[in-house]
Amino acid sequence: MSNAYDVVVIGGGPAGYPCAIRAAQLGFKTACIDAWLNRDNTPAFGGTCLNAGCIPSKALLESSELYHRMQHEAAAHGIGTGKLELDLAKMQARKDAISKQLTGGIKQLFAANKVTGLQGFGRLLGNGQVEFKAHDGKTEVLKAKHIVIATGSEPVSLKIAPFDGERIVDSWGALEFTEVPKTLGVIGAGVIGVELGSVWNRLGAKTVILEALPNFLPMVDQQIAKEALRHFTKQGLDIRLGAKVLSAKSGKKNVTVEYEVGGESRTETFDKLIVAVGRKPYTKDLGADVAGVALDERGFVKVDAHYKTSAPGIYAVGDVIGGAMLAHKGIEEGVALAEQLAGHHTQVNYKAVPSVIYTAPEVAWVGLSEEQAREKGHEVKTGVGPFAANGRAKAMEQAAGSIKIIADAKTDRILGVHMVGPYVSELLAEAVLALEFAATCEDLALTMHGHPTLSENLHEAVLLVDGRAVHAVNKPKK
Fold it and tell me: Where is the Pyridine nucleotide-disulphide oxidoreductase dimerisation domain (predicted)?
């Protein structure tokens, strides 16, 4: 087989593999190189998302939520469960099987679209060349007209809490526990920290989350974030804000964590400690300097509006270029780039990137929060629809949370939608579509929603913006 390609993608995660598939669909001879190895040293496409992030974490979140609901909600439905038993090994095996099915699916998609999948390491050599080193050590040089960097990101490590793979672990390690820790510490109350904390809290671990920032989920509308915090606290998550970790030392039986709150030093011991303080770009041994690819001060690959790097013929997409480190954002960038290489006019709307935290209740948002909208100079009007009045949510025994609409008072245009509640991840697409089409509150108010559905609550929130709700008490107009 010839080693000359039209497109070579380095990285087979959510940004890389869709880019490779779309490029092949558009007629480019394409190869995708991916270096991922699972714990058992088996290679797999899909990157962190499919192997150690989005997918396995959602599998454990679903399993742990079912366990929690059977404990706390079954009786309300008239269902007697008796004594519940937890088989963590089977739960973990199910999680692994789901990931394996999906990563295997990428191989099938590559075959169907005639993408050459190469499992090993890719390194830039300059002059349109990429060195491919297979996991068995064999190397070859590929030539390409277009080279795409999609090497993703990795967990940020802390010098004060170094990973040891046993007691102090990263997000991947937190998905691999073989027994439920009696006590669990989490550094970081962001998306990953709250999700992983929820999993093990539901399964019985006494969980403490230490967050250095004074506000919970500062990227979320604070009215919604405070409501989410109240629900999580009620579930038993001990979330301590303004807690700056000073050190973490791993011993034979536990981890000792020293932290500071309000100027007061405190010490806690945990069986396990998860460090979830964010992610950083992965460019190790990429050869960026050799190829003339510029990185910024934080290590992200610099690109222009069309994903071009500083080196001719080399592009970058996904986590490695910064912005929202989300799989769906990477997918859209990878596809957009492939289409641009084929001469199509495509772009990604970064003002309408959805975000979700898969807790129970879920937290989901798109667009501006009320605080952000006011900072940008908008005259704001809002509507908040509580799920407590939603018939479907009550029937599900999950009538917790609210949906908040943030709109411009002068133009009626929707600026953002922030929610906490049951399955709001599935309601979010309507809000994203509203932002994509520059919809007004009136547009959504005139859109019929099925009854009884959770989506009615989005409709109710829009009606509340202008005091038009039928099934809720409208706020007084000034």
Answer: 353-461
d(CA 105, CA 108): 5
Question: Alpha helix locations (H) across 169-261?
Answer: 191-202, 222-234
- Evaluate whether 248 touches 257 at the Cβ level (below 8 Å): yes
Tell me which CATH homologous superfamily contains domain 352-465.
Answer: FAD/NAD-linked reductase, C-terminal dimerisation domain (3.30.390.30)
77: annotated active-site residue: no
Domain boundaries, the chain: 4-155+280-348, 168-277, 352-465
Burial class (CB in 10 A: 0-12, 13-18, 19+), 83: exposed
pLDDT at residue 17, as a whole number: 98
- Write out the two tokens for 380: 């704001």
Q: Are 360 and 64 in contact (CB under 8 A)?
A: no
Quick one: DSSP state of residue 399?
-
Candidate list 72, 378, 451, 471, residue with the active-site label: 451
pLDDT tens digits for range 352-361: 999 999 999 9
Query: How does residue 472 score in pLDDT terms, banded at 50, 70 and 90?
Result: confident
Domains 4-155+280-348 and 168-277 share a fold: yes
> Which residue in 267, 254, 199, 261 sits closest to 232, CA to CA?
199
CATH architecture group of domain 4-155+280-348: 3-Layer(bba) Sandwich (3.50)
Cα–Cα distances (Å) from 288 to 9, 96, 123, 354, 380, in that order, read: 14, 34, 8, 31, 45
Q: From the CB of residue 91, how many other CB atoms can be counted at a distance below 10 Å?
A: 19
What is the percentage of the chain residues whose pLDDT exceeds 70?
99
Q: Which CATH class is domain 168-277?
A: alpha beta
E strand segments, 44-138: 116-126, 129-134
pLDDT tens for each residue of 171-221: 999 999 999 999 999 999 999 999 999 999 999 999 999 999 999 999 999
pLDDT of amino acid 459: 97
Characterize the bridge pairing of strands 264-270 and 116-126: unpaired
Residues 6+ apart with CB under 8 A from 249: 255, 256
